[in-house]
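Protein entry
_____________
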Amino acid sequence: MGDDHGGRWASWGAPDPGPHITVGPPFDGLAAKVGNGMMISFLADDHQTVDRFHAAALAHGGSNEGEPGLRPHYGPTFYAAYVRDPDGNKLNAVCYK
């Protein structure tokens, strides 16, 4: 599978929700550098797991990059949360149910 996401992003991999890699500019508009411009994403079984991931990350020194919730611009069932770990790496948990 390949997709150019309107010219700003490129993705390769298995059809959603399979593993894939996406390359593009950082969402926050800042320069790409270590910890910014890359993200590790974890596939969750349900919304509660996404919520627990987000809460655990914040409880262990992470910072909020996006509250748990639906992101309909990625699809009607795309439920995700975003954090940065204490080293500044961006992490995400997502559920497609």
User: Anything to note?
Assistant: The longest helix spans residues 47-59. The chain has one domain: 25-95.
